[in-house]
Every structure is written in C-alpha cells, then in structure tokens.
Input
Amino acid sequence: MTMTDTSSAAALLDWYRAMGVDEIIENAPVNWFEAAATAKASEQQPSNKSSRQPAPREQPATPRPGFNNIAPDEAVMDARKRASKAKSLEELETALAGFDGCPLKATAKNTCFKRGNDEARIMLIGEGPGRDEDLRGLPFVGRAGQLLDKMLGAISLTEKDVYITNIVYWRPPGNRTPSTQEVEACLPFLNRQVELLDPEIIVLIGGPASHTLLGTNEGITRLRGKWRDTEIGGKTRRVMPILHPAYLLRTPAAKRHAWRDLLSLKAALKPRD
Ligand code: URA
Output
C-alpha cells in the first residue's frame, strides 16, 4: 500500500467514524462496491427470458444469523405478548433476550437490560446504550454513567438504591437518537419493567426518555425539575425529568440546574415507615 493509499484509507475510516459507522458487524469484510457492480453487470446480461420480466430486486444486506426482520406492528404485538407473560424482572430479561423485533438488536453486541437493585424505590430511565454500555451489557457505565453515579452520590444514593434502564435496550449505531419504531418495539418491555419493579419515583434522564414516557414534545430545559403524576406501567407514578449527564459533560454551566433537581429528588425521598 502506498502512502497515498494509506492516507485515503485513513480519511475514509475517519469519514465512516464521523457518520457513526464505528462497529464491526461481520467477522470478514464485505466489499459492497464489488457486490453492487456484480449485480449491475448481471442485470445488463442478455437474458433468454421475456424482456418484460421485471429485473430481480437487489437483495437486502444479510441480517446477522439468527436475527429476523419483523414488521413493526408485528414486533409490538410480539413484545406485548412476551412482556405480559413475565412474572418477575428476571423472567422479563429472559423474555427480552428471545425478542428479535427491535432492529437495533441486529447491530448491537449486547442487550443492556438494567443496572442496580431489583427492589429499588427509584427508577432512572435514559435514552439508550452507548458504546461502553453495548460492550458491557449494562446501562450507564460510560462517561455519562460515571457522572450520573457522582450526581446520585451527591445526594447519598448508590447503585444499591436505584434501578437504571433505558427506553431502548440496544445501542443505536453511532449513538443516534432511537427512532419511534425502535422505541415502540421496546416499550411493552419497559412498561412491564416499571410494573414489576413498582418504583415510588421515576427519574427520566434527558429529552427522548421524557418525551416517550410523558407523551410530550416540550423541550427538556422546560420539563426538567418539575414533578408530575403520570401513568406508566399500569399505575400513576411520581415522575421527574432531569438533564442528561452527557449534556452536562458538554455544558458544565447547566450543572447548577441538575443540582437543584437532585435536591428536589432527595426531598421527595422521605424515609419509609
Ligand atoms: N446514555 C443513555 O441515555 N443511556 C446509557 O445507558 C448511556 C448513555
């Protein structure tokens, strides 16, 4: 490989990374340029079939072995059926492992079901796993997660006091916001997770989690810090949206708002009788 080849390959990899292509899905690389050229050449081959015959449709990229492509409404029905059968959080995690209706699963390395205590009074729900979470199969373990732990620590809460999950259980490629279809496929599991955990308080971390569970499009800067009673998982719950720690890492000046919201959370946690 010449110097020019190396620098063009490096530039191409930088471009892929910037576009969110930062994970290897197959063990061996696939030359899609060659595959497309072969398909085009075979379309141009004279055929002994009638010229009115439609050209063969290009095959979709091979899904990861064992993964099924399911229509979105079928996926939601399947998710509801599987989630409703689970009688415990453990059973729900097993049910989720057998569910192939969320397209994110095809590109993720691991399912991130939860982190924390199955008996916690406080549930925190974020947007979706990032790279570190995907590698470890646990929510909020990367930089944002470390900041979240520090924030909780500031009001004397540890992993033993909380139960942490996300609105989707698999990493969106390139850490993009999960799509409506991806969120809807996971939602029956999340609702059942709330029902089975039965938390007293739910903290929604960031805009996408707040929008999904509060059914609003209002900006997170307006939503944050305000308590509401909202029905989630078959019961009315005390819910408060907070700023996402990933946003706080980028915007340290917003930490004062986060601090105010944490104090409000602490005040809401009256000791049990
Ligand atoms: N951001 C999230 O919303 N969730 C995670 O699990 C990690 C980062």
Observations:
- Residues 72-268 form a domain with the Uracil-DNA Glycosylase, subunit E fold (CATH 3.40.470.10).
- The pocket of uracil is lined by residues 126-130, 133, 139-140, 142, 144-145, 166, 205, 246 (CB under 6 Å).
